[in-house]
Fold this protein.
Amino acid sequence: MPPPIRRSRGRGVALVALPLLAFLACGETRRPIGEECLRDDDCLSGVCSARACVPAPPLVAGAVSPPDDRPSPLPLPDDAAAAPDAPTDAPGGG
């Protein structure tokens, strides 16, 4: 019969500590509003000002927003459907 395998105590501690450290390293490291920061990446809001996380600034008044995919709620006149200078027949006499 082979001799029993001896396991060191340090190896057991390492096997427990390694997954624990990996779990803690994957946690969120960005800070909430009001906490100290050095870069924009340090804050949950993405804005670091005067070494503190601050909320994102409001949108500029009058800024153009992207167009909607919805149809316009304004009615179009019947004659606006076709361009006034477009020919109704193709040239060539058909």
